[in-house]
UniProtKB/TrEMBL annotation:
Keywords: Membrane, Transmembrane, Transmembrane helix. PANTHER family: CYTOSKELETON PROTEIN RODZ, PTHR34475. The keyword Transmembrane helix applies. The keyword Secreted does not apply. Coiled coil: none annotated. It holds the Pfam family HTH_25. This is DUF4115 domain-containing protein. The chain crosses the membrane at residues 119-140.
């Protein structure tokens, strides 16, 4: 009977792990598709979620072996989905993490004392799990912040300056476009910033956007972007790799013209 019990427990463990692997593969593909639709790279997601790049990549690829315990995976999926504008809590709740059940049978008096599991031990176990989740989250956030700072320092060394003005001064036009008659710009905010967007000379948007916002505008002739915090704005022109607009706390203006050549 003990052998049969161990066999059933082993089959349940394999079944749960298989469910987790299949569910992670499906959820990772959905997150990857949503990220690409928004024109965001994994490095940009690191800045938005403060989750290390290797863990984000493992989630998208459904690589269960590269990720921590299931309860932590669920928390990472929630942060990932929230950063993409999804309902993270609802989205992550479908990932199976397993449950611990206590069965009290009438034959309890025949059970050896060493196998008893008092209720207070299970409550202590749950408390330890919650405490561990908080600790891991802080550790991951600290590592992600350090990695983001290192990437930002390297980016400042290699990045070409789009505009050198500290005030709203006209700048030279940048001729980049997907097709000869249109230009597209994507903005990703790493910090709360005031933004003004002019599409073909008309104000399309003006206001303060929160951290994590991603918006895209298109124009037939030209696009102009103004901000009071260039360091908190990542700019992607015609779906190319996003670059930081300028220095933190500085006002900047950039105008991108469509390529009118035939």
């Amino acid at each position: 009977m003990n052998w049969l019990s161990r066999k059933k427990k082993h089959e349940f463990t394999i079944s749960l792990e298989q469910q987790q692997r299949e569910k992670l593969t499906a959820m990772g593909a959905q997150l990857n598709s949503s990220r690409q639709e928004k024109g965001l790279s994994l490095d940009e997601m690191v800045l938005l979620t403060r989750i290390p790049r290797r863990l984000l990549q493992a989630i998208e690829q459904g690589n269960l072996a590269e990720l921590p315990e299931p309860v932590y995976i669920q928390g990472l999926i929630r942060q990932f989905a929230d950063a993409l504008g999804l309902n993270g809590a609802e989205f992550a709740s479908s990932f199976p993490i397993g449950t611990h059940r206590v069965s009290l049978k009438s034959s309890w008096k025949h059970t050896p004392i060493g196998e008893l599991r008092p209720l207070h031990l299970y409550l202590l176990y749950i408390f330890m799990i919650l405490f561990s989740v908080g600790g891991l989250s802080q550790l991951l956030n600290a590592n992600a912040l350090q990695a983001a700072n290192n990437n930002q320092n390297k980016s400042k060394q290699n990045q070409e300056t789009v505009i050198q003005s500290q005030k709203f001064q006209p700048v030279s036009h940048i001729n980049k476009s997907v097709n000869p008659q249109q230009v597209q710009i994507g903005l990703t905010l790493t910090e709360k910033s005031w933004i003004q967007v002019l599409v073909d000379g008309k104000v399309e948007y003006e206001g303060e956007l929160p951290e994590g916002t991603h918006k895209t505008w298109k124009a037939q002739e030209q696009l102009t972007v103004r901000t009071n915090n260039a360091g908190g704005v990542l700019v992607s022109i015609n779906k190319e790799k996003a670059k930081q607009l300028g220095e933190p706390g500085k006002q900047k203006e950039v105008t991108i013209a469509a390529n009118t050549r035939s």
